[in-house]
Design a protein that fits this description.
The protein is globular and about 65 Å long. A 6-stranded mixed β-sheet has the order 3-6-7-8-9-10. It contains 6 helices and 12 strands. The longest helix is centred in the N-terminal third of the chain and has 20 residues, at about 55-75. The protein has helices at about 25-30, 55-75, 105-110, 110-115, 135-150, 195-200, and strands at about 35-40, 45-50, 80, 85-90, 95, 100, 125-130, 155-160, 165, 175, 180-185, 190-195. About 25% of the residues are buried. Strand 9 (about 165) and strand 10 (about 175) form a beta hairpin. By secondary structure, the protein is α+β, with helices and mostly antiparallel strands.
Length: about 200
């Protein structure tokens, strides 16, 4: 008699209960749960982010697409990444920004094995796009974490309030109300993100 395969059970965790995992456990979980957007804090807390809704997915696509076009037209400087890419930050956290870029020098310093796994560095440039279910306090903490771990430029884009927070090393956070464009500054020379489709 052939036995039916076991059916998965869904575990709901209360917000006040944290599930702790080691880096090895996180890698195993991420490998078998590719449909989920998993992250891990520096203290080992597992963060499970479900797939995004349509509007957030559309906005992510526009941001990643604009970053790709800049990268291609600028003779492919460094390496650009979408939201499915995992980074292992110097503080031990595993993060997946909505868009990211790493300079060529830092990318080339990695071994082929490091390039093919969770990338063991903090990107030079990161974007986090808020969705209707995101907690702004948590997103701000994540942006501070990127900055503390070496990001040179970070954008926290909040479509609900048409607001952008810009994070730079050693500077106060700059808040822009309803900007039409964002500049890649000296980190991504010539990159300009139009926010028309993000605010729509």
């Amino acid at each position: 008699m052939v036995q039916a395969p076991p059916q998965p059970l869904w575990l709901q965790l209360p917000h006040h209960l944290a599930l702790q995992v080691t880096p090895e456990q996180f890698a195993a979980l991420a490998a078998v749960n590719r449909e989920l957007h998993l992250e891990r804090t520096a203290t080992g807390e597992l963060i499970v982010n479900p797939p995004t809704g349509g509007n957030t997915g559309k906005r992510n696509w526009n941001i990643a697409g604009e970053l790709y076009l800049w990268w291609r037209n600028a003779q492919e400087p460094g390496e650009a990444f979408d939201s499915s890419t995992g980074f292992e930050l110097p503080n031990g956290a595993n993060r997946s920004p909505d868009a990211a870029w790493v300079s060529q020098t830092r990318w080339d310093a990695l071994t082929p094995e490091q390039q093919d796994s969770f990338i063991p560095l903090c990107p030079d440039f990161v974007v986090e796009l808020g969705s209707k279910n995101d907690n702004l306090k948590d997103l701000r903490a994540k942006m501070e974490e990127y900055r503390e771990n070496g990001a040179k430029l970070g954008w926290l884009i909040d479509p609900k309030h048409k607001r952008v927070e810009i994070y730079r090393p050693g500077q106060a956070v700059e808040v822009l109300e309803n900007p039409s464009h964002l500049s890649g500054e000296t980190v991504l020379p010539g990159f300009s993100l139009s926010l028309r489709r993000i605010w729509a």
